[in-house]
Amino acid sequence: MNFDFSDDQKQLRDQARKFLAEKCSPKAVRVVLDGKAPYDKDLWKGLAEMGFLGVAIPEEFGGAGAGHLELCVIAEEMGRANAPVPFSSTVYLAAEALLIAGSEAQKKKWLPAIASGEAIGTLALFEGKGNPAPKNVKLTAANGVLNGIKKPVADGAIADFAVVAARNGSSGRDSDISLFLVDLKAGGVEIKSLTNLDPTRGQAEITFKDAKAEPLGAAGEGWSILTQVLDRAAVLCAFEQVGGSDRALEMGRDYALDRIAFGRQIGSFQAIKHMLADMYVSATLARSNSYYGAWALSTNAAELPEAAAAARISATQAFQHCAKNNIQVHGGMGFTWEFDCHMYYRRANAMALGLGSLSYWEDQLIDRMRKKNAA
Amino acid sequence: MNFDDTPQEAEFRAIARAWIGANAPKQYEEDLRKSSLGRTVLKNANILEVAKAWQKKKADAGWACLHWPKEYGGRGSSPIERVIWSQEEGPFGQLSRMFIIGHGMCGPTMMAFAREEHKRTYLPPLASGEKVWCQLFSEPAGGSDVAGLRTRAEKDGDDWVINGQKIWTSGAHYSDYGILLTRTDPTVPKHKGLTMFFLDMKSPGVEVRPIKQASGASDFNEVYFTNVRIPDHQRLGEVGDGWNVSLTTLMNERSAIGAAVSTGFHELFEYCSSLMLDDGPAIEDRAVRSKLANWAVKASGLKYTSMRAISALSKGERPGPENSIGKLVAGSMIQDVATYALDLQGASGVVSGEDAELAGRFQAMLLRAPGTRVEGGTDEIMRNIIAERVLGLPGDIRVDKDVPFNKIPTKGR
Ligand SMILES: Cc1cc2nc3c(=O)[nH]c(=O)nc-3n(C[C@H](O)[C@H](O)[C@H](O)COP(=O)(O)OP(=O)(O)OC[C@H]3O[C@@H](n4cnc5c(N)ncnc54)[C@H](O)[C@@H]3O)c2cc1C
């Protein structure tokens, strides 16, 4: 047993952290935040050059073939830097869906393009309100074309292709749902950007009108593939959230040491100390749950579904907790656009919803624990 | 990252499992399984005797105090082997709770500060459960503020003469020895005038009076010292260096208690899995599921946090202040879990003991839980430790820091 990353993986983390500190300063993030660019193209290119986009993609498909533990390490740094790039939608969702269910030809076409930064991908699952569930998928697939509306689609306005969940049956079972690959630059696709909580990662509405689509994975297997994709993304997002939690905590700690009130560092007031201690506690619990998830993900262990849900819940809570209390520690400064606190607050709350809200993952966790206990 | 056993670990696990299977006191397994914080009832048996017998059996076969060196009655095992052992020991591990203070705190302090001949004399019977130890630190005037204690030790020839009072001493009523923190110089600032000893609890002048706790049980005591004599060779560390010695104890206390705290989650999950509410099974109720999921991730987060700490230990790192997390999180969690379980029982939740649901398991938990948030350092002290020692925030302002102890005020108003 060894519940830690290896020295090589820690080295990779240092390398990623250094790279992001240089290329992804808060100032760079603000270019996207202020709406001056849809995402940071230079950073995206740099990430590709560093090999970070394809770290978990096998070498035969143009990746580094390192593995998912390495991807977790990088995900943490992406979260810490609040990177304004379509990393999660492309790397955790689109690439993972391809890895799980793609045909040889589909993998050959898209995975090298992802690894090299040429293609941005996303998952088009939601259709308005509601959590992931087969009954919430109304968009139809028939005769090789899709019809319907997806929203919100993360990074939908900048994506080149999407993995789309569609209905091609009416039996009322999960097997009514299948997945499709759609080239978003082809015809029959209308894309509208949506304003959203976290402008550093865009959201879009995509309307499909007889849009050409090719099946991804076997017909009727869509929901089971999607569940696997969501579980895997849950672990990877958890690492981003852990990185964000740590950064928010660090910002709060640093400010508490700098700021003087009543003639003392505010960090010497117990109310502030205890708030920061509680942030540390939730960030630590989230990190530990995520490590377990990382192990399950990297070994494809039977524990993955339960571990993923636990990592998801605990990392979501931790990031929200740390981000909101970081603002509180900063007082009025924390509530200004000028300070960076709100970027993490926005990201924390947007990430809390992206793969389905907490209540969805709570249900998943309890169902999975029951199943295990019954076994 | 690997949560699976290595081949050597798997072999160790197999040997441990076989030995436990052949030797554990199975007649008590069912009772131990149903026990929770605040409620360990062995039918027709005295739990201290059962615990001592199990500990002795383990010691004779080389399974006691796994992490201690062999020459002091331990096994010299790796931290991971300790985890494997506790996984395999399962409910029987609860029996070692009787010895947690001796094994987790007194033993390590003796190892660090006692003379070699004392270590060889006193540690093996402590490891084997034949002799039970207690920790005599807290006083009416010094709990969180341990260094505020007033029990005096005065030199008289080759002996020290002790006068004063300790309080909240767990297990003093059945302990054979104790480690004792005293004041040897009241004219210097409080941290500088302390000295540590170990003593025989049967020494003349030691009087133990059990205290009835809020829970109704009596696990801790007041201990009075009247002209108790302790030979100088039973001193631990230098005269006036007792604060440093006690820090060793307290550090070990945090990891010993931190690793052993229960959260109540498994009890609650099991309960909700079979409970029927007015509208159907509890486990299918959205509100119940949400509560359960939130506690589930705290319980698993604590579990993997302690595993990470063990990985760090295996690499030779010292147990750090991070260990304060365990008790801090679990203490209030078990209190909330118990409150919630009773809420699910509606008005009948008020009934306790054998007359209640599950023989009063959650009621007992509720009544014991406040103690968890106080013993071994309160929640507030744990947060201070995390804030100051992990996050590097400034220490609390200490108005008594440079004041001679006998000039510090003793009453708030
Ligand atoms: C079940 C149980 C078993 C115990 N067993 C033992 C034992 O075996 N041996 C032993 O020596 N002791 C034992 N204790 C004593 C225990 O260590 C003390 O009770 C504990 O350290 C708190 O001290 P106190 O009771 O004096 O409370 P106080 O220190 O008076 O605390 C009162 C309140 O003030 C708060 N407070 C105090 N100082 C600060 C501060 N600096 N910042 C913020 N808040 C503060 C506390 O958090 C608490 O809320 C036991 C206690 C319990 C409940």
Automatic annotation (TrEMBL), chain A:
Keywords: FAD, Flavoprotein, Oxidoreductase
A GO molecular function held by the record: flavin adenine dinucleotide binding
Cofactor: FAD
SUPFAM superfamilies per the UniProt record, alphabetical: Acyl-CoA dehydrogenase C-terminal domain-like, Acyl-CoA dehydrogenase NM domain-like
Taxonomic superkingdom: Bacteria
Domain Acyl-CoA dehydrogenase/oxidase N-terminal: 6-118
InterPro entries: Acyl-CoA_Oxase/DH_mid-dom_sf (IPR046373), AcylCo_DH-like_C (IPR036250), AcylCo_DH/oxidase_C (IPR009075), AcylCoA_DH/ox_N (IPR013786), AcylCoA_DH/ox_N_sf (IPR037069), AcylCoA_DH/oxidase_NM_dom_sf (IPR009100)
Domain Acyl-CoA dehydrogenase/oxidase C-terminal, first and last residues per copy: 220-357
Family according to the record: Belongs to the acyl-CoA dehydrogenase family.
Protein name in UniProt: Acyl-CoA dehydrogenase
Automatic annotation (TrEMBL), chain B:
Domain Acyl-CoA oxidase/dehydrogenase middle: 134-228
Highest rank taxon of the organism: Bacteria
TM stretches of this protein: none
Alphabetical list of Gene3D superfamilies matching this protein: Acyl-CoA dehydrogenase/oxidase, N-terminal domain (1.10.540.10), Butyryl-CoA Dehydrogenase, subunit A, domain 2 (2.40.110.10), Butyryl-CoA Dehydrogenase, subunit A, domain 3 (1.20.140.10)
A GO molecular-function descriptor: oxidoreductase activity, acting on the CH-CH group of donors
Domain Acyl-CoA dehydrogenase/oxidase C-terminal: 240-391
Cofactors: FAD
One Gene Ontology cellular component annotation held by this UniProt entry: plasma membrane
This protein's UniProt keywords: FAD, Flavoprotein, Oxidoreductase
Xref: InterPro entries: Acyl-CoA_Oxase/DH_mid-dom (IPR006091), Acyl-CoA_Oxase/DH_mid-dom_sf (IPR046373), AcylCo_DH-like_C (IPR036250), AcylCo_DH/oxidase_C (IPR009075), AcylCoA_DH/ox_N (IPR013786), AcylCoA_DH/ox_N_sf (IPR037069), AcylCoA_DH/oxidase_NM_dom_sf (IPR009100), Mycobact_Acyl-CoA_DH (IPR052161)
Every Acyl-CoA dehydrogenase/oxidase N-terminal domain range: 51-130
Family note: Belongs to the acyl-CoA dehydrogenase family.
Protein name: Acyl-CoA dehydrogenase
Protein source organism: Bradyrhizobium guangzhouense
Lineage of source species: Bacteria, Pseudomonadati, Pseudomonadota, Alphaproteobacteria, Hyphomicrobiales
